[in-house]
């Protein structure tokens, strides 16, 4: 199994602040997302990932996010298996996110 790279919430925030080309995908449920999302993140529930990955370009850099980092790790592993080469998991999930939120 390919090792999934983990990225800290601070590193994600720095990349977003520096306008680096990363795509943040939030795999939490609707009620969790209603409590706030990382600005610019795209919401695709974990259960919707299998049918949604075909619509995502494989050459982009993705950071997967959930509440604690476990579901997003599952999503990251699934995407790696589907041929996405640049997928990271945000360590600790939204529980560790100190940055701005959008509602």
Secondary structure: elements and pairs:
Layout: E1 5-7, H1 9-17, E2 23-26, H2 30-33, E3 42-43, H3 49-52, E4 62-65, H4 70-81, E5 87-90
Parallel strand pairs: 1-5, 2-3, 2-4, 4-5
Can you walk me through this structure?
- The structure is a single chain.
- The protein has 103 residues and is of the alpha/beta class.
- The chain has one domain (5-96): Oxidized Rhodanese, domain 1 (3-Layer(aba) Sandwich).
- The chain has four helices and five strands, in the order βαβαβαβαβ.
- The chain has helices spanning 9-17, 30-33, 49-52, 70-81; strands at residues 5-7, 23-26, 42-43, 62-65, 87-90.
- Strands 1-5-4-2-3 form a five-stranded parallel sheet.
- α2 (30-33) links the parallel β2 (23-26) and β3 (42-43).
- The protein is globular, with a radius of gyration of 12 Å.
- It starts with a strand and ends in a 13-residue tail after the last strand.
């Amino acid at each position: 199994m390919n090792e999934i790279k983990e990225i800290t919430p601070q590193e994600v925030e720095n990349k977003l602040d520096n306008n680096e080309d990363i795509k943040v995908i939030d795999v939490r449920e609707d009620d969790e997302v209603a409590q706030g999302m990382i600005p610019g993140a795209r919401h695709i529930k974990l259960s919707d990932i299998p049918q949604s990955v075909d619509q995502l370009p494989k050459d982009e850099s993705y950071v997967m996010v959930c509440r604690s980092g476990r579901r997003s790790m599952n999503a990251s592993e699934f995407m790696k298996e589907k041929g996405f080469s640049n997928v990271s998991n945000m360590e600790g999930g939204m529980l560790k996110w100190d940055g701005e939120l959008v509602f």
